[in-house]
Design a protein that fits this description.
It is built from seven helices and no strands. By secondary structure, it is mainly α.
Length: 135
Amino acid sequence: MDNMKDKKLEDICGKENPFTVPEGYFEHLTQTVMDRLPERRFTTPEPQHISMWQRVKPWIYLAAMFCGIMVGARYVFAPSMQEVAENTQITSRMMTPDEAQEPSYEDIYLEDALMNSRMDDYSVYCYLTDVDDEG
């Protein structure tokens, strides 16, 4: 079907190109276009003086951004006053003998911290009792 349409177009228009270009047009095209452009001088810009503030400003903005993130995170993730009051009430009441036997979370944390501190028993004793090591 398409072949038939192509055949009819060839019969009507023919195979030759209907568009023509004047002789030597592309040989002188570049020079003709350049002659029509206005003359332009290129100058190099003078180097600008950059002040100390302009050099330091990005670093100050970066520090301010991190401070803002830290304050925001502290506000979002900090325990509320009610939680602090509840924890104070829990720790201020008397412990039963059974509770005294069980290690608390703080004791477990303290043990882990001491094990990872690479301090011997005597150094821990001196640290906790404020005994001078040298004397």
